[in-house]
Amino acid sequence: MDFRLQTLTPHEAASLDADALILLWPDAWDRADAARADVLTVWGRQALADGDVGAEPGKWLAAHRLPGVRPRRVVLVRCGDGSAAAVRKATAAAWAALEGAAPVRSLVLWVGDLPAAALSATVLALAAVTYRYTSTLSQPKPRALQTVTVGVTEADTRRAAFEEAVAIAHGQELAREWANRPANHSTPALLAEAAQALEGRGIDVEVLGPKEVAKIGMGAFLAVAQGSSQPLRFIVLRYRGAAKSVPPVALIGKGITFDTGGISLKPAAEMDEMKFDMSGAASVLGTFEALARLRPAINVVGLIPACENMPGGGAVKPGDVVRSLSGQTIEILNTDAEGRLILCDALTYARQRFAPRAMIDVATLTGACVIALGHVRSGLFATDEGLAQALSAAGDAAGDPCWRMPLDDEYGEALKSSFADVANVGGRAAGVVTAAKFLQRFVGDVPWAHLDIAGTAWKSGKDKGATGRPVPLLVRYLLDQATSAAAPAKAAERTARRRRG
C-alpha cells in the first residue's frame, strides 16, 4: 500500500480523484472559524447541528456523491480530543463504514491539524484494518486499497512522524505475515529465508545450522530442536547505523515455529494457535524491516533461535539435564517450557559476541502472562531502571503498551534443582515471573529487558490472527535511543566548530 503525505485544505482534499474520502472531525472543529465555508466543513457542521452524528469517537456519517466533492464516497468520523487512542478508534470505524460495498482502491484521509501522534496513529490503524492474509489461500482476496493520500495542514512539520509510521506499518505487516503462516509454511529454514530477504538494505544476515550451533555449544537450544525433523536455524541480523565502535542494542526473538509442548504435550484444543509461538522472532524481523526504511543512527543486532518443539523419538524428556552455552546445567522438568531454553543460549551468545549496550528479548513465553495482563499490555521485566522507563515510554507513545512486572530475588528460589544448576520451571505460582528469573541468570551485567507478549501477539476467535506487536514499541524505542545518542555528538561537534572558528 502506497501512503502519500500532502498539504491540503478541506477544499483541496474534496477535489482529489479518489474512490473515497475520510474526514477526521475532532471536537475542536465544532467551534472552528465560522468563516470557513468549504463544502466538507459546511456539510459536517450541518450534520452536527441536526444531530445526525454522535459526539463519541468512532461515530460516523457517510454520504454518496456529495455535491462539490470528487471522491464518490465520504465518511465523516468523530475523533474526540484528537488523541492517538481516539484517532485509532475513529479510523477503524470509518474504514468499517466503507468496507463491504464497492472496493476502495484509492483513499483520501484528511487529518488536518491534528498532532503528529494522531497522524501516526491513523496511518497505523488504517494499515492494520486493511491487512489481508493471502499466502496459503487458493482464491485469495488481497487488500483492495492501493493508495492513501494523507492530507494535513502542513506536511513539512509532519513528515518525520509520517515516515516513521509508514515504516512501522510495513514492519508490523511483515511480522503479522510470518506469524500468521501455518507451521509447514513457516519452518525454521523458511524463516531464515525471510531474514535473508532483508539483506542489501543496510542489513547483514548470517544463518547458522545444527552443526554450527553444536560447535558453539548451545546445548539448551539443541535440546529443544532434537525432537523435530525440521533442522534448526540460528539467525543473526546486523543493522549498522552508527560507528562500529558504538555498542549495539541486541533484540532476541523467540522462534518456535510450532510448539506441541514436546513430551509434555499440550491439549489438542487450540493447539493450532501454537504457530504463533514464533511471534517474537517475527517482531524482530518486522523491526529490522522498519530499520531498513528509516536508517536511524544506531547499531542493532537481531538474534532468532528458530526450531520446532516436537515429541519425536529423539525429543528431550522431562528430567533430562542439558548444558547451556553459558556452562550452566539445566534440568528440564517440563518440555513445554522450551522458549526460555532457546532464549538463554541466544542471550549468552549476544553477550559474549556483541557486548551490547542493552539486550531485549521478545517472546510468547507464558500463559501466566495472559492471566496477569490479558490482551492489552505486554509484560515487561527489566534489570535496569533506565531501560525499563525507556521501553514503557516507547510503548505508550506507540500505542503498544507494556506493564512492568517484578524481579525480586525470592522468586528465583522456585527454580532450584537437586540435579542441575537450575530447573526450567518453578511451578504454577508466579509462572510469568519465574520464567523471567530463569532468563535473568544468563544476562550477566548487561542491561536486560524481557517482553512477554503471550497475550498481545495474536488474537483468537473471529478476529484470529497475529497483531504484529511489539514492533511499534521496539521501533519507537530504537528511534528514541538513536536521537538521544545523537544529541551529545551534535553538541560536541558544535563546540568543536566554535573553537575552530
Summarize the structure.
The chain is of the alpha/beta class and 501 residues long. The chain has 14 helices and 20 strands.
Report what the structure shows.
The protein has 501 residues and is an alpha/beta fold. It contains 14 helices and 20 strands. The chain has helices at 10-14, 39-49, 84-98, 116-130, 159-180, 188-196, 210-216, 219-225, 279-294, 339-354, 367-373, 385-398, 431-440, 471-500, and strands spanning 2-7, 20-25, 60-64, 73-78, 106-112, 147-152, 203-208, 233-240, 249-253, 255-259, 299-309, 320-323, 329-332, 358-363, 378-382, 402-404, 422-423, 448-452, 458-459, 465-466. Strands 7, 8, 9, 10, 11, 14, 15, 16 and 18 form a nine-stranded mixed beta sheet that branches. Strand 19 (458-459) and strand 20 (465-466) form a beta hairpin. The chain is elongated and about 80 Å long. The model is unreliable at 491-496 (pLDDT under 50).
